[in-house]
Structure formats: C-alpha cells, structure tokens
Design goal:
Elements (H helix, E strand, L loop, with lengths): L5 E4 L5 H11 L6 H10 L3 E8 L2 E11 L2 E9 L8 H15 L4 E7 L3 H9 L3 E6 L9 E7 L7
This protein binds coenzyme A.
Coenzyme A (COA) binds next to strand 4, helix 3 and helix 4.
C-alpha cells in the first residue's frame, strides 16, 4: 500500500526525528552535529521531510551546486519502507531540479546498495562513474545522475 505523504521543508524541530531515521538507516551515520551544521550554516543545503500523520517518516538533503542539484542524503524510516515514500522524495527533488533549470541531478550510492540503485534507476538515474574507495570501509561507490537538460549532456 502506498502512503500519501506530504513533502515539506524541514524545520529545526524535525531534526530529532530526522536523526533517528539516519541512525536506523546507516551503519556509519553522519554525526548529529554535522547534520545540524549543514542545515543551519550551509547556505547551499536544504532539507525536506516526508510527513505522515504529523510524523516524520523520511527525509532528503539537497545541495544546490549551481548547474547541478546534489542529493546528499535520503532515508526512509524502516517501518515505512516499500510504500512509495523514497520514490516520492526523489521525484520531489527531480521536480525541484527541473523548476530551477538545473542541467542534472546526481548522487553517490554504495556499490552494494542495490535497493537504492533500483529506486534511482527506476526514476531515470544512470551510473556515470565508479568511485574508488569512496566510503570509509573502502567500499566503492557509484555516481548516478539524471540529465535534466539534454543540451548539456556530456
Ligand atoms: C533506499 C530507500 C530510501 C528506499 O525508500 P522506500 O520508501 O522503501 O522506497 P519506495 O517504496 O519508494 O520504492 C521505490 C522503488 O525502489 C525499489 N525498492 C525499494 N525497496 C526495495 C527492496 N526492498 N528490494 C528491491 N527493490 C526495492 C523498487 O524498485 C521500488 O519500486 P516498486 O515499489 O515499484 O517496486 C530506503 O530503503 C532506505 O531508507 N534505505 C536506507 C538508507 C539508504 O540506503 N539510502 C540511500 C543512500 S544512497
């Protein structure tokens, strides 16, 4: 069953819930301070939450990098996965990139994270390059991107 969630800009109050989802989702989560610093002081970052019945059940972090939109973090609460929430969050980011006339939207993903890769492929992201020892356990990553403006495909 798909959940009908609302995607909203995150507020400072949302960060406890965001962080709970982060630690349930990653073996090596970002430290909480890093999150809050990024949210408060990085002028190019924006966070959005997926809210269902007032509860934060997923989030996405985006960096505006000029002609590109970078998805730096996305996670859905384990109890609410496989209900279309991740897809909604990525679709939201794609729409935002289109509205802002970006040339592309991109992200990094662990080579072993086939679930996330399936989600991104489904929404038109393609593997652009392999990133050697990108993660702290020396795992390789993939850079995946979706071209928004075909004129700038390279
Ligand atoms: C990746 C993640 C965000 C997906 O969120 P989600 O809400 O469960 O995803 P959705 O329900 O929107 O699924 C969308 C598509 O992703 C793929 N997918 C999702 N879960 C899957 C699973 N367990 N197995 C295989 N494919 C899966 C499917 O293609 C699915 O499409 P379908 O529903 O038509 O089959 C979630 O699994 C998560 O938070 N993982 C931990 C954090 C993480 O890995 N983040 C990405 C880092 S790059």
């Amino acid at each position: 069953m798909k959940l009908s969630v609302k995607i909203e800009k995150a507020t400072t109050k949302d960060f406890n819930e965001i962080y709970e989802i982060e630690i349930m989702s990653y073996e090596t989560p970002w430290p909480k301070e890093m999150f809050v610093m990024d949210y408060l002081f990085n002028g190019k970052s924006e966070y959005f939450v997926a809210r269902w019945m007032k509860k934060v059940i997923g989030f996405i972090g985006l960096w505006d990098e000029g002609d590109k939109l970078h998805i730096v973090n996305i996670a859905v609460h384990p109890d609410y996965r496989k209900k279309g929430v991740g897809k909604k969050l990525i679709e939201f980011a794609i729409k935002k990139a289109k509205k802002a006339h970006k040339n592309e939207i991109y992200l990094e993903v662990r080579k072993t994270n086939k679930i996330a890769q399936a989600l991104y492929s489904k929404l038109g992201f393609e593997i652009r390059e392999e990133l050697e020892n990108y993660y702290n356990n020396n795992e390789n990553g993939y850079l995946m991107r979706k071209v928004i403006n075909e004129y700038f495909r390279n």
